[in-house]
């Protein structure tokens, strides 16, 4: 088994088929920007009904619950509909449909004041499936998607049915950290650049400290979190800010990466299992057009995964799940790990940004995963895809191994960007945009003639 100190080619996670693309797309779709009047997501968590359901696990409310792994599906017949009650009349400006592989070829979006009399505000006979973002205009308390022709022999199936608009209330502002400047007007790149097998560099960062803090989820509340294992910035705690991190020092090989990286602490019984030596944190492309990847804005922060994730949800972001010896693709810890091995996990972060916020209340919705290797229309800006590759020195009987957040599939991690901007930009330009497989210095051993982004001291040349 490869340990964290050895370099193994990383892989961009590629999902199979339309179903997976829709699942990935439905992770972290951002609410409409606060800057656009009072436009906001109105449908999530509201009452929903449907003309039919395929079975008891695919009910109507599953399409408005904000959960990317649940879905509504209908019986295998035409027509079918799904309706959401917004609770009050609203001016509808946008509808987002996140289809499973069973999608509508012909359908309408309709609004109603009473749930009985309907007005069409969108109609198509050439629906493509996948994620559809529809700009519409209409007013009503009830909104429904009305399908008249299925794309295949199955029913209609939606992971998410999202309705945006203005219902006269003020959208929440608490928890939003505005980017300065905000980045707008970007179109997701569909350019197909020259093939390069690699487009990445490593941030090799060692363990710093354990602490029951989380400056993203529980900012300003020391001791409010489960125990976390921190890497990178040595000063990270509940009160950390962009400025405090920039003033700190780092365990990363490149000393000007002062970012905070943290994850739930691992235990074997009551013994803390601490990763030994520098851990590999890949910065790579998540999109096909690796030349379009931009640096992280200073102060950007987000959470990857969730302590409340199910086993299936955990596997969507993982490369090989938990692994040791010859055991791979495990959502939970293997029962036993050979004595020569370590317990490993590789987990990828969303890499498409909406350009508006450095953080949002859920610490996720300003970021999204690419869909079919292109950033979605809601999150147009391609940033580096972070991939944690962690190696924990534990083997043998794993029955007492746990995380401070729970089972193995509760694994998640946090990232708070405090890179020196020029250093990060140099590594991204040279390694990711340049199609190289770089170490922490920005040097590709297989292409030595291309040089390095940083000097021998892992800093920008003077």
Cα radius of gyration in angstroms: 23 Å
Strand runs, count: 29
Mean pLDDT: 90
Beta-strand proportion: 25-35%
List the total number of helices: 4
Distance from N terminus to C terminus (CA atoms, Å) equals: 40 Å
Structural class: mainly beta
Keywords:
462 residues, mainly beta, Jelly Rolls, 2 domains, 8-stranded antiparallel beta sheet, 6-stranded antiparallel beta sheet, 7% helix, globular, disordered N terminus
Structural commentary:
With 462 residues, this protein is mainly β. It has 2 domains: 32-170, Galactose-binding domain-like (Jelly Rolls, Sandwich); 200-450, no CATH class. It contains 4 helices and 29 strands. The strands form 7 sheets. Strands 1, 2, 3, 4, 5, 6, 7 and 8 form an 8-stranded antiparallel beta sheet that branches. A 6-stranded antiparallel beta sheet has the order 10-16-26-21-18-19. It has a 5-stranded antiparallel beta sheet with strand order 11-12-13-29-17. A hairpin with a 6-residue loop joins β5 (104-112) and β6 (119-124). The longest helix has 12 residues, at 421-432.
Short summary:
It is built from 4 helices and 29 strands. It is mainly beta.
What is the topology?
Blueprint: H1 17-26, E1 40-41, E2 48-50, E3 72-73, E4 80-99, E5 104-112, E6 119-124, E7 131-150, E8 157-166, E9 177-178, E10 200-205, E11 207-211, E12 228-232, H2 242-246, E13 260-264, E14 266-268, E15 271-273, E16 279-284, E17 301-305, H3 311-317, E18 318-324, E19 327-330, E20 336-337, E21 343-348, E22 352-353, E23 357-359, E24 367-368, E25 381-382, E26 385-392, E27 396-397, E28 401-403, E29 412-416, H4 421-432
Antiparallel strand pairs: 1-8, 2-4, 3-8, 4-7, 4-8, 5-6, 5-7, 9-23, 10-16, 11-12, 12-13, 13-29, 14-15, 14-28, 16-26, 17-29, 18-19, 18-21, 20-27, 21-26, 22-24, 22-25
